[in-house]
Amino acid sequence: MAGSAVRSRRGYYLYLIPGFVGLMLIVIGPQIANFVLSFTAWKGVGTPRWVGSQNYERLLTDDQFWGSMHNTLLYIISMTIIPVLLGLILASLLFDYVRDQFGERLSSFFRAGLYLPQILPLTVAGVLWGWILSPVGVANAILKSIGLGTFAQNWIGDATYALPAVSLVIVWIQVGYCLVVFMAGLSRIDPALYEAAQLDGAGWWQRLVSITVPMLAPEIFVVVLTTLIHALKVFAPIFVLTQGGPNDATLAPSYLTYYHFFTTQRVGYAAAIATVQMILTLGLALMFLWFQTRQAERGA
Amino acid sequence: MTTTLPRLALAAVSALTLMSSAALAQGTTFNIWWFEGAESAQGLTWTKALEELKANHPDVTVNFEQKTFDQMQQSGSMILNSAEAPDILEYNKGNATAGLVASQGLLTNLDEAFTAEGWDKILNEGQLVLSRYDELGVYGSGSIWGISTYGEYVSAYYNIDAFEKAGVKVPTTLEELTAAFDVFKAQGVTPLALGGASTSGQHLLASLAYTKADDNWVNNYQGLKAPLDGAPYLYAAQTLTDWLAKGYITKDSTGMNDDDAALQFTSGQSPVYVSGTWNLGNFSANIKDFKWGQFVIPTPKFSVGSTGNLWVIPKGSKSPELAREFISLLLSTKYQTEQANNGGVSFGADAAQVTNPVGANASAVFKQIADKQGLGFYPDWPVPGFYDVLNQKDTGLLQGTLTPEQFVDEIKTVYDDAQASQ
């Protein structure tokens, strides 16, 4: 009996092969190659030359790299913190207030509208935002036409405004994702909880803080983790809008990796930056998963 | 289930076999790539020449693929290093691009073809500087690895109507240029359109640096022969900040790319725009409301400019003879004249046959610069990745976060680093 159970289970391993091969080819293999390359000097063609830890030593004193790391902290605000908070408030507003007061349709309309940036191709959205934020663009034209010309700014060309402007675009993209996950989560919370709280005189804000947030903890974990990873590898909005400028004000590590890989032909150095990024992301993800498991165990 | 997998595998294998035999049955194919726009003088001319090549060889299947500058700039070397390389392609000139792949043995040597095909009768040594790369991939000496069939240079485009209306004559010195700017500024016009975050920003900067550059400086700078002598750049940076302070350029230019800046010129809002001959097609087609012309930024000798991108034949080309024939076609008087008539910068056009004033003028200006050995090349060439560095630091300068001295220090750090580690 036991023997046949093992044999039949062994059969299942066969089904893991395609996934395993894919994982090796697309994730693990390149990761190892990248790690090895980070100890070489290589121009993308020809033979890589072994240089030991030289690339990593260079990283330690590279202002561009540290500047991009500093910007990453700011990107975490615009990719994780603001979208999660905003998503939470909007989700509970739509779910708890708009739907009750104005009906399912309007609530669905807003949900779809806020999710739209997620399905727009980022390059298209980026080009459009470029037109809006250009000094001779739509935003400034509107401000001038309504007599608020003094507020018109060189949005993506001035270091003071470039990072907030790029962040605004990122928030616009990210909110929909948070919102949709949170709304899905809300639908599994027992409505009786809200009714009871309402009967006890709890307002909208109290219901949000005392019921929604604790009940949504698993969703919040997932969203925070995935958006954090997005923030650590942010590339496309920067590539399309500012190319890391002006004067590196919006530079992110992924863009720096891309820059060294494709334009300076310091492939080894780019690999070193990518390795540091990978370790950071992996570390953060593991920490979060561990924390989540512990929370779940406590809950159970 | 046990029989399905082998059957699938068999099907896949036979499909592959079928595909490869179909490819063989097609006979000779000729794969050609370029990235000049379809509406540019080069694109128009090359398309026509390719038609002639097709007509001459009806048995050959010609496959043309339109690429972009960025595609080739970023992954060109990897494509050439693979089996996917075409039989001939347009490739970016310079040490970091053509030089790199030539030194890695990825291109066909064209020394023999140069004389055998009679290209030596059309191109002079000055037009070959960027065709030659040595074993380290440094331009200027060594074998011929690519052939350019057109020229490029950066100049000031100006609105003739606006100049006439303001009573300003075409400047021949830098002082006259700034005096012209003053006249427009007094009328409340920002005279100079500039894409500060883009190519035209660094080309203006380099044009100003070249007003203080001699042969020695340009040779050292472009050849990465010594640590950067920052004096010409310091002058350029100081001049640029001065122009900014006087309102010749808007501070908003840091948020504008070349398309935005070109639009300021074509829409008539700014009467001057400093950029390259690659705008000729666009301006010819889109400026209807005013007359426009070009003048070269007054410098003692050097202008930003060079021979154009190169036609290279990859090492693995299956039709090198056809590739050579195509280059010969492009260099022929017929297509050089055609190119000038399309508004391009030609080397060997028959002046009597050129009816397009834009192409005639541009070809003449190029000849004038080339004849005095005044092609100073582009400022981003010496160091891979310098293009982005110059753009970033240029915007820093224009928005006032970098002083001219800091600007020079920062680009010198990158330059000297590359110079020391070559």
Kindly list the characteristics that best describe this protein.
heterodimer; A: 300 residues; mainly alpha; MetI-like fold; two-stranded antiparallel sheet; 2 strands; globular; B: 422 residues; alpha/beta; D-Maltodextrin-Binding Protein, domain 2; 2 domains; five-stranded mixed sheet; four-stranded mixed sheet; 11 strands; disordered N terminus
What does this protein structure show overall?
- The complex is a heterodimer of chains A (300) and B (422).
- Chain A has 300 residues and is mainly alpha-helical.
- Chain A has a single domain, classed as Orthogonal Bundle (MetI-like fold), CATH 1.10.3720.10.
- In chain A, 78% of the residues lie in helices and 1% in strands.
- Chain A has a two-stranded antiparallel sheet with strand order 1-2.
- With 422 residues, chain B is an alpha/beta fold.
- Chain B has two domains: 28-150 and 308-331, Periplasmic binding protein-like II (D-Maltodextrin-Binding Protein, domain 2); 160-305 and 382-420, D-Maltodextrin-Binding Protein, domain 2.
- Chain B has helices at residues 4-25, 41-56, 69-80, 95-103, 111-116, 160-165, 174-186, 199-209, 215-223, 231-245, 258-266, 280-286, 320-331, 333-341, 357-371, 386-398, 404-420; strands spanning 29-34, 61-66, 88-91, 132-133, 143-144, 151-159, 192-193, 272-276, 292-295, 305-307, 310-312.
- Chain B starts with a helix and ends with a helix.
- Chains A and B meet through helix 12 of A and helix 3, helix 4, helix 11 and helix 16 of B.
